[in-house]
Amino acid sequence: MIKSLNQAFCILPGVGSKTAQRFIYYLLEHNREGGLALAKALTGAMEQVKHCGICRTLSEATACEICDNDKRDDSQLCIVETPADIHAIEQSGIYKGKYFVLGGYLSPIDGIGVAELGLDELNKMLSKQKIAEIILATNATAEGEVTAHYISNIAKQFDVQITRIAHGIPIGGELEYADINTIAHALSGRKNYD
Amino acid sequence: MIKSLNQAFCILPGVGSKTAQRFIYYLLEHNREGGLALAKALTGAMEQVKHCGICRTLSEATACEICDNDKRDDSQLCIVETPADIHAIEQSGIYKGKYFVLGGYLSPIDGIGVAELGLDELNKMLSKQKIAEIILATNATAEGEVTAHYISNIAKQFDVQITRIAHGIPIGGELEYADINTIAHALSGRKNYD
Q1: pLDDT at res. A193
Q2: What pLDDT does residue B80 have?
Q3: E runs forming strands in A19-171
């Protein structure tokens, strides 16, 4: 029973047999109630969390909290790869528009294409709604850049401003330790100092 | 629902909100079946795993696999702090005797005394069974040493050899990077070279 629980824990990203064992001994020796509560919360989430019908993020309701919020700016649409990206942007507190979740990046070799990323829905959204700006916030990886480029080509058919989040030295980061690509981006993307 | 699952994950040792979020998004996006299986295994283990009536390790049966195994040497008793320690020693494959699990170390300030560590049971075991050697395998910490010393005082009343596992430079370890206490132990515990 402990062995099968160990294997079950090992499906979690970054969790191996040793970490799983640590979890299990901790729960069994110190917090069985917590373990049962975790099991219950897990079952509930796995069975009841679906995707938002509008922005495709994870949500219990058919429309997520952000899509359902009238106070959010409908004219801005931020395009991200995963629901975790929304969480990260929300924590910055600076963005008040809406989101669209791709659920990954373009990768034809893995069978992830236009349909899987919901780009048809995005196309419909752009044609039906009055969106003034779409912000491409895919990751700063090769795949993220390709995906952003592809989406910008779709968006160009519409009367919409297309922007990409800025890339450069992270705040608090030291130039000395930044990689060359980041430094190149930071230099070529320099702005007038005011 | 995602928030409460996040909190439930955070009870695990070494898991904070960010790691929990990573677990949750992974399970929801890529492996809901695995999540449900984990919940089931957790519930089963929390409800059904008890302690072995003999050695006090975690076990589904009233006697654990090791205590129930006739091929294990009854005359050796290895005393460890936790069930995880048994697991570690078993993996070395060198020990064929039995175990006794304290479930912690002596710590009167936290209310962990003779009764909590099962030292009365240990006393009974030593008086009833023919045990030739007890191996003190508590951790090499101040608390582990105190606990080992206390148990050795109990065991001295009986005709039993009392040994302590060796401490020194770990195999594969470099002297240069060992801490001074370990080096002191390694020197004072030196053996004839054969």
Answers
A1: 86
A2: 96
A3: 50-51, 58-59, 73-80, 97-101, 133-136, 161-164
* pLDDT number for residue A105: 94
CATH number for the domain whose boundaries are B2-48: 1.10.8.420
In one-letter notation, the amino acid at residue A117 is L
pLDDT digits (tens, 9 = 90+) for A1-37: 889 999 999 999 999 999 999 999 999 989 999 999 9
Question: Which spans in chain B are helix H?
Answer: 2-9, 17-30, 32-48, 83-92, 119-128, 142-155, 180-188
CA distance A22 to B12: 9
Provide the whole-model pTM.
0.79
Between helices A17-30 and A32-48, what is the axis angle to 10°? 120
In this complex, the residue of B2, B48, B60 whose CB is nearest that of residue A49 is B2
Q: In angstroms, what separates the C-alpha of B10 from chain A's closest C-alpha?
A: 9
Output the six-digit token pair for B181: 């206490």
Interface residue B139 vs chain A (CB under 8 A): no
Q: CB-based contact (8 Å) between A88 and chain B?
A: no
SS3 of A80, please? strand
> Fold for domain A58-192?
Dna Topoisomerase Vi A Subunit; Chain: A, domain 2 (3.40.1360)
Tokens coding B66: 């090791």
Chain B positions touching A117 (Cβ under 8 A) are: none
Contacts of B42 in chain A (CB under 8 A): 5, 8, 27, 35-36, 38-39, 42
Query: What CA–CA distance (Å, rounded) separates B82 from A29?
Result: 9
Residues of chain B with CATH 3.40.1360.10: 58-192
SS3 content of chain B, % helix, strand, coil (to 5): 45, 15, 40
What the block records as the tokens of B127 is 């008086």
CATH 1.10.8.420 domain extents, chain A: 2-48
